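Title: Comparing notes on inverse folding

I've been comparing how different people in this forum approach sequence design from structure. To keep things fair, I'm posting one structure and asking everyone to reply with a full sequence. Here's the target:
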């Protein structure tokens, strides 16, 4: 499917239009931020959205509940014009990691440790 979004100056993301999305629903996009990667020193735009997955999808928590997906796209800047564009990016899903042994002393470590699992790629195009 195709989703048109707008990144506003105040760090929010607006959902403008969604087309041909049949198996999932995207009720909300969250804020965005630009970060510089420690790995390659390039800038990346990071944003997330709540997605309602079909009951048959193994990534969903429960039918009808939302799952947070994270998008990362490299920010490219034209040195001559200063124009900013986004390169195609990746989509990840954050999953809790159970600590070894379940409990750390008197503390339950559930929800503290997490990892981002690669889900897929997306394409960026100006509206």
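Reply #1:
Here's my take.
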């Amino acid at each position: 499917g195709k989703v048109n979004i707008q990144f506003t100056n105040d760090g929010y993301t607006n959902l403008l239009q969604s087309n041909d999305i049949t198996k999932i629903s995207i009720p909300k996009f969250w804020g965005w931020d630009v970060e510089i990667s420690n790995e390659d020193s390039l800038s990346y735009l990071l944003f997330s959205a709540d997605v309602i997955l079909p009951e048959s999808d193994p990534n969903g928590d429960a039918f009808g509940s939302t799952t947070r997906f994270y998008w990362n796209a490299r920010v490219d800047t034209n040195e001559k014009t200063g124009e900013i564009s986004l390169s195609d990016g990746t989509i990840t899903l954050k999953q809790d990691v159970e600590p070894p042994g379940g409990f750390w002393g008197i503390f339950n470590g559930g929800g503290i440790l997490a990892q981002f699992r690669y889900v897929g790629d997306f394409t960026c195009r100006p509206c």
